[in-house]
Amino acid sequence: MIKSPHFTRRKLLTAAPSLALLTGIGGAALAAPEGLTSETLLMSRQGKGPRIVICGGGWGGLSAARHLREELPEAEIILLERNPIFWSCPMSNKWLIDVVDTAFLTQDLLRPAQKWGYSLVQCEVTNIDRAAKTVHTSKGKVDYDFLILAGGIRNAYEAWFGEDRQAAEYTRQNFGSAYIPNSEHLALKNKIHNFKGGTIVMTLPPPPHRCPPSPYERACVMAWHFKVNKIPAKILILDPKPQIAPIGAGYKAAFEELYPDIITHVPNAKVKEVDPYNKRIMTEAGDFDFDDAVFMPPHQASDMVWYADLIGKGEDGRPTGWADMDPRFFTARGDDSVYIIGDSMGAISPHFGHYPKSGHVANYIGRIVAGNIGQRVRGEDVVAELPDNLCYMLVNGDPQEAISVEFTYAVGQDGLVHQTQIDIDVRTPDLMAEDFVWIDGMFNDFLR
Amino acid sequence: MTSCAELNRRQVMIMGTAMGAALGVSPLLGTAAAAQSSTAAARADTAESDRIAADFIGAADAVSEGLALDLPALGDNPSAVPVRVHVTEAITDDSWCEELIVLAERNPMPLACRFRFSQASGAADVAVRLRLIETMHVRALARMKDGRVFDTRGQITVAAGGCGL
Amino acid sequence: MANPPRIWLSNETPAKDEIVRVRAQVVHIMESGLRLDAAGAPIPRDTLTRFEARLGETLVLDWLPETAISQNPYIEFTFKARESAVLKMTWTDQHGVLAEAGRQITLS
Ligand SMILES: Cc1cc2nc3c(=O)[nH]c(=O)nc-3n(C[C@H](O)[C@H](O)[C@H](O)COP(=O)(O)OP(=O)(O)OC[C@H]3O[C@@H](n4cnc5c(N)ncnc54)[C@H](O)[C@@H]3O)c2cc1C
User: Fold this and answer.
1) C72 and A424 in contact by Cβ < 8 A?
2) Contact C79 B123 (CB under 8 A)
3) How many other C-beta atoms are found inside a 10 Å radius of the C-beta of residue A244?
4) Quick one: average pLDDT of B31-46?
């Protein structure tokens, strides 16, 4: 075994200025010169409790971290998140027309880590070695007793462009979907506010995808902006589904009554080919030229689920794109030290497929899994629990009116999970008021 | 404005319950999902629907005009097919619609709903959502103050799948 | 109830005799009485039985839904705004009054 000189140095580092490491400010600078190899330890073991590593500090990961701390005061909880700050996708459509400001969406990640008492490390998860129970990151490796994968989604541009990464990157840069917390949201807002007129094409991913009702909300807020600013814009929603769903009737009424000259919904428009350079898209419902676009490619489980080799296989033997997991306990199939929560989760029930890929569900599953891990560590029976879901979607800017969809779950006699869906498609201001109450409750739970 | 104060109070309560939902207090509705099967079956003929219509028409001569029935070309969601019915002639203080019924002809219980209006209504224009057990005709009948009865039917094709009956 | 009635009005300050459009929706299971539970026993019927809208004291609409009406019943109707008054709406099912709501209509 090679005794490297930085071993002792690293030990010093982890012992003393752990805050610098946690914050990521200065930590990299201190460790940089000779410290980083693929064998670098991100953090040495502390305390006597089990170590739980959470990959991804979004809605699911932050919720799990907070509730795990309460479940297991002794446990070592390490949250790995690549972004320097929290950016909320929920409410981000509303932010496009300034219903909320940027400070509302961006939140300090350090405060919840301090408040609830877990370790936050800003780094990219680059690989997962389940045999060695080790996560590899851009700042070193870390071993775990329990692992929670909460990376959200990835954009599967391969479905459109195969191996042509240039085309994928060009599309992302110019026609980004703004469905993952990153710069695309800011770019989209600029695009909308600088648009002078013409046709904007918006593609919806095929189901399952992140937040099914929100692309239509996006169309509504964009149309509202164009309407009040008298910008001669058309929005073509290219929808692979045969009809608008969920809250179809509410959206249809909004499109027809509020934005009849702006929004056109094109059903059955499965994407066949995208030519981003010549601004042309070919679909099963026809070919369309565009001046600008918001392209949402198909969604899949986040990269880390692929690194962990936990993507399910369909009957055809091809990857489903989503985690292969137990639908009631959220553990990876064949490896119960690994949990998958949030949007990366695979199918739950043959009756309805996936849980809605929402922040509400990610938070809920984060709480359930925290409870389940607590039960396991304490040697108690593990109780399978069911989430619910609630989403409010803004369709009108003035007055601010929203519609909503709610899901409840129950286990049937067949032992499978059944879903009840409640679409509220009468648009009202009180639904928008409830949306604020909802997100306040959420942020208070895991973020503030 | 006492009503406004009342509304505000209710809004506060709404927010309370929304919080409850956000924090995991599940509503009771989930139990419905656990049902296994249904005895609902489409009717083989329109006899029951015709009988209800005949009752409604009574001694009047029903005419196939005066009433507009808007149905989507395809009921892509059989559990919520939007239907709008309205009397096409002017509603006035002397001539108004007293009663209107909607029939889902082949549903197990064809009478979908009944509407009653008054002179004060000043209108007869309604929309509801139906659950339709299969592709069928929807029929609407309206009786005016002077006893005239309007009768109209429209075909609706529904996509396969449960209608929730 | 977890979900109060949702109400949309085309105009809360209409001109006299203007036709106002109303949309209203409540959450209700609309159990048809035709379904069987997991054990094969019939689930009793539980439907909305009546919706009433009054402008002040005056009835403008009486709606009697049956089993063919969808879950979470949606009703859209119009009425003539003859006076400034509260538009009162009441939903009843077989257990009694399910929900009540009021919206002030003020003639402009
Ligand atoms: C426009 C829009 C509107 C929406 N509106 C609503 C709404 O109103 N209500 C609602 O409930 N939901 C809404 N959603 C959905 C919601 O945003 C997601 O469902 C939710 O964020 C899922 O939580 P998650 O934890 O799975 O993923 P995320 O919240 O995306 O978190 C994943 C985290 O993992 C990090 N990560 C990923 N890969 C790595 C890696 N390799 N290394 C380190 N970190 C990594 C990411 O940076 C991210 O912070 C909306 C989404 C969008 C796009």
Assistant:
1) yes
2) yes
3) 22
4) 75
